[in-house]
Specification:
alpha/beta, globular, 8 strands, Acetoin utilization deacetylase AcuC-like enzyme, eight-stranded parallel sheet
Length: 310
């Protein structure tokens, strides 16, 4: 077996949650295209093989209720959210949509279990950090980051989880869910003037001004993670690696380049590798008008994972 074959054989496992199987209005469809295109790009570049993918089953509701309230889950399951609650999610509510979210949850949970054995795993979907315990917001119905962290802790697979959320939008739902809980540290580095307008309080927040580019962004990130790791020693990391920090992103308002995003991801994965702390990556947001640029930005983290871990 050649070295290249060996690397592919032990390649990271990827949770692939299927895209919507019902029509969506055009303004909702665009953000979802990347989830269909990214697997194809990974296969085309020979970063992964077909057997590196797994499509998880829906997560047992026991673990959903370990994070989300029974009242909210019941309304979601029976499609009985109010019009205002549906509007806050940004999606037309349907059974297919709810089923997809439940599948995404188990994608992250199973990726975390895999990462405990092999160091790293990825969820092509996930990063649904705007979902609160009792409501959905911002294209997020259920919070896979929170569900996964709680699953790890409840099953004594982890004692201290660090959430590194570098999406351009604050992880408000995650911050709210873990407020006052010392076994999960939430770090959100996000656009100062971006959604959500009313921010929650993470364990550490850093609001980045509009127009921030690579050099300043990376300097801030390095310093903030150094501060966190002085006082908090995680035994698991959940990384929300949204690419809506790109200058080209129509919702981002920052000015990062593709190379800057690559350096960001390399830094975070490098920390996890050097500390020997398992990590999962959830893709998060990305809304550049050119979908190829979104796919390229997401693909980078898979290339880095291959180079660093395998």
């Amino acid at each position: 077996m050649t070295l290249a074959e060996h690397k592919r054989f032990f390649m990271l496992k990827i949770a692939f949650s299927p895209i919507y199987k019902h029509p969506l209005p055009e303004n909702h469809r665009f953000p979802m295209e990347k989830y269909e295109l990214l697997p194809g790009q990974l296969l085309y570049e020979d970063i992964v093989k077909e057997d590196n993918f797994f499509e998880p089953k829906p997560l047992d509701e026991k673990w959903i209720l370990n994070t989300h309230t029974k009242e909210y889950w019941t309304k979601l399951r029976h499609l009985s959210l109010s019009k205002s609650e549906v509007r806050a999610t940004g999606f037309p509510l349907s059974k297919e949509l709810v089923d997809r979210e439940i599948t995404i949850l188990n994608g992250s949970v199973q990726a975390a279990v895999y990462a405990l054995q092999h160091g790293i795993a990825m969820n092509i979907a996930g990063g649904t950090h705007h979902a609160y315990a009792d409501r959905g917001e911002g294209f997020c119905l259920l919070n896979d980051i929170a569900v996964t962290a709680n699953y790890l802790i409840e099953n004594k697979l982890s004692n201290k989880v660090l959430v590194i959320d570098l999406d351009v939008h604050q992880g408000n739902g995650t911050a709210s869910i873990f407020a006052g809980k010392p076994d999960v540290f939430t770090f959100s580095m996000h656009g100062e003037k971006n959604y959500p307008m009313r921010k929650e309080v993470s364990d550490l927040d850093y609001a980045v001004p509009d127009g921030t580019g690579d050099e300043v962004y990376l300097k801030i990130l390095h310093s903030q993670l150094e501060i966190i790791l002085k006082d908090f020693s995680p035994d698991f990391i959940i990384y929300q690696c949204g690419v809506d920090v790109l200058k080209s992103d129509k919702l981002g308002r920052l000015a990062m380049s593709i190379e800057g995003v690559k350096n960001r991801d390399a830094f975070v994965l490098g920390i996890a590798k050097s500390l020997k702390v398992p990590i999962i990556c959830c893709m998060g947001g990305g809304y550049s008008p050119n979908v190829a640029k979104i796919v390229e930005a997401h693909t980078q983290v898979y290339r880095l994972a291959q180079d660093l871990y395998f």
